[in-house]
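Bump. Still looking for Fe-S-oxidoreductase structure tokens.
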Amino acid sequence: MKTTLIAAAEVDRLETWQRYASHMCGGCHSTCCTLPVEVKINDLIRIGVVDEFEKSEPPKSIAKRLQKDGIVERFNQKSGIFTLTRMSNDDCLYLDRKSRLCTIYDKRPDTCRNHPRVGPRPGYCAYKPKKA
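Sorry for the wait, here they are.
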């Protein structure tokens, strides 16, 4: 009997990523949730960490507040893109450590909604099987 090995991708090595198929998500360790999550102001409003009326404030001051609150790690003023904070193990701030599920799934940012169609390697996923 021939055994089949399930290769695990390495997040930083795009050539190890596998072509995405929808069934992969259910058995994955949520590897995509260890990638930096870039968001825009509308994502932050959807998540509920920025109020609609704050949209008219300078993004730099919003970023400063969110950095102080531990929600945003970086802000690129030129592009207007914020990067969400990751935990010490590189997990997204909003990923539940035990279930490996997104705690804000219905409000998740566009980056997450569009993955893997858009991302470091479109159409591919850094699939890593869940531990049994």
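Residues 59-68 form the longest helix (10 residues).

Edit: fixed formatting.
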